[in-house]
Amino acid sequence: MAPTAATSAHRHPRTPVPEPEPVPIAWIWRIDLADDRRQESVAATHLHDSERERAARGTGAVRRRRILLRAGLRQALGELLVLPPADVPLVEDDGRPLVGGDRQLHVSCSASGRVGLVAIVAGSEVGVDVQEHHEQDALAASVEGWLAPAEEIALGRLPAARRPLAVTRAWTQKEAILKGLGRGLRQHPHTVVTPMAEAGRVGDWVLRPVRVLPGHVATVAVRTALDEVGLVIRDMTMGEIW
């Protein structure tokens, strides 16, 4: 006798299709790049040979930054995927880290000064950028030509004391979007016109500030049609595996 629809459903229960998250969640890990206590141990346990070789081509702070940032990315993904950090299927596309396999996880990393950041979003493209703030560098932005005319006008409307920090913030927003697009600085920054505010939208991208150490500025950009993005921000203890 042919099975009825009821018996077929009983034998082969249909797996419900998971509903997409109503609001994208950006998981962000902060890494203290000045803390080198576990630098060598995570280099040995978290990284592949090619990653250790790349780190070794830098000296001092550059080597430490490369080790801690890549180890931090592997550790964060390992936590989400329930994998040892070294087993996370990371691949690179023109220097951009991607999660290999059939996964909808998008990642981005950045480092400046004492701060490293790892950002991960499921189902939406993401870019993150942090910059150490130097007032004199920010004041040179107009001369360097990476601010768009609309940004120059908006900047001129701000009180003079707020302009240097606003310029650094705009740079992080531009870089976050360009990283999310996979283009980086191969696309000129003046083509991304930021809102000259802590948060806002640029085209498909929602911009949100990330709280970091004093003297640094950071932004995460998430590609979404929604106007909201959730942030989950954690401080990473290097070598701590869940």
Tell me about this structure.
The chain is an alpha+beta fold and about 240 residues long. The chain has one domain: 4'-phosphopantetheinyl transferase domain (Ribosomal Protein L22, Chain A). It is about 35% helix and about 25% strand. The protein is built from 8 helices and 10 strands. The strands form 3 sheets. Strands 4-5-1-10 form a 4-stranded mixed sheet, with helices on one face. Helix 2 packs across helix 4 and helix 3 runs antiparallel to helix 4. The chain is globular. The termini are far apart.
CATH class: Alpha Beta
Give the strand line-up of the largest sheet: 4-5-1-10
CATH superfamily: 4'-phosphopantetheinyl transferase domain
Low-confidence stretches: 1-12
Helical element count?
A: 8
CATH topology: Ribosomal Protein L22, Chain A
Query: What percentage of residues falls in helices of 4 or more residues?
Result: 25-40%
Q: Give the biggest beta sheet.
A: 4 strands, mixed
- The H-and-E topology, N to C, reads as HEHHHEEEEEHHHHEEEE
Shape: globular
Tally of structural domains:
1
Structural class by sheet pairing and helices? alpha+beta
| CATH architecture label | Alpha-Beta Complex
Beta fraction: 25-35%
- Please give the radius of gyration in angstroms: 21 Å
- The quaternary organization reads as single chain
**Total strands:** 10
What gap, in angstroms, lies between the N and C termini? 51 Å
